[in-house]
Predict the structure of glucan endo-1,3-beta-D-glucosidase.
Amino acid sequence: MAAINRLLLAIYTLLSLYSLATAQSYIGVNYGEVADNLPPPDATVRLLQSTTISKVRLYGADPAIIKALAGTGISVVIGVANGDIPSLAGDPAAASQWAAANVLAYLPASSISVVAVGNEVLSSGDSSLASQLLPAMQNLHSALSTAAPSVKISTVNTMAVLAQSDPPSTGAFHSDLIPGLKGILGFLNETGSPFMINPYPYFAYRSDPRPETLAFCLFQPNSGRFDGNSKINYMNMFDAQVDAVRAALDATGFPSTEIVVAETGWPYKGDDGEVGASVDNAKAFTSGLVAHLRSMAGTPRMPGRPVETYLFALYDEDLKPGPTSERSFGLFKPDLTATYDAGLSRSASSTPTAPSAVPKGKKGTMGWCVPRDGVSDEELQADLDYVCGTAAMDCRPIQPGGACYLPNTVRSHAAYAMNVLYQTSGRNPWNCDFRQSATLTSTNPSYEGCVYPGSQ
Ligand SMILES: *[C@@H]1O[C@H](CO)[C@@H](O)[C@H](O)[C@H]1NC(C)=O
């Protein structure tokens, strides 16, 4: 059995390393063009190819970008402007024309994955436009379903479509949106298209700017937030927000509709008084999110598979109105240098986390949960406090006099504690995620009189 575990671990490690070296199907980026200083399309394409980003979302259907991405394997989400919705809704011929000019003209050279009809329409307060959304989606679907069946039709929502999201298990759509949403969700379900939404932990922090909220939003050590209904202790805001969306979809009768995160990001700069906007925070959020997606832990309600996520944004948009933060989400500068190291580089010098992937359905076969190399004692102490305190696991063996007390180091005690939580919480990959500070191993960490749970 141990040999099989070792073999499986070796295979998963190789697969994970392979996926780290190539583009990752679940990492995308938003390319907004409200700017006058953007690099030429071919330079942007070369930049994308130097990263693990494999998907781009445009807000419109810029022909130069779509053509430049032809043959790269990088897929594109294109957008229908809100102003085009009425004509597409009212006239099937207009929808056919739009589809021919903006989708069919580029296939198959370019890979167009989704047409996002309208942006943030349902929470815009424009009920007339909202009522035209579904007919526009249906007309575009009719125009494309035969000629381009792989192109999905969806629409992008803000978190404001939720009336409630905390705790995540109580996630629910606004009751006045539900009648309209049911039609749209039925369409997405029927056509196998994703529900697209923009969760921003940054905005959650802005409305609750306490240090513990910041740590929760930035994938940093924190004691988590316990959801009393699901009994899940959430360790980061991204998972909590995405699972609230999952709960809302489930409650509306659409448990198999996939969620795509169409935007999420953190500004690296803001005006005086714009709390939380800094390079350090932007780097912590984005690199923490990328590492979390790569851990393959998924979210507690959707384990074992990362949510497809489009980072906001590729470049700053210098012509956007509003506070400085609105123009300061860019991962890259117009000269193609990185604003900060987000862990997206394809080269070996990026800092991907060690693989801890366990494919779905293989739970419980992976041995023991231990700290990753390079994680600080401070982080491990926070994990230890969480396991032995908040989660109330049996930590007596690492207390003075216990069989695993020596060596009396934070790392050794954290290893024991992380493994106890993993073994007693179902041996699922996400039980060994913590904040990406733990990993699974097939090597039994037991020693002398200290037997780790999970050892037969
Ligand atoms: C979702 O689609 C599936 C497969 O087509 C269907 O069986 C199911 O009834 C649909 N659910 C709803 C709520 O429409």
Remarks:
- The CA atoms of residues 95 and 202 lie 36 Å apart.
- Residues 368-441 form one domain.
- Residues 186, 189-190, 253-254 surround 2-acetamido-2-deoxy-beta-D-glucopyranose (CB under 6 Å).
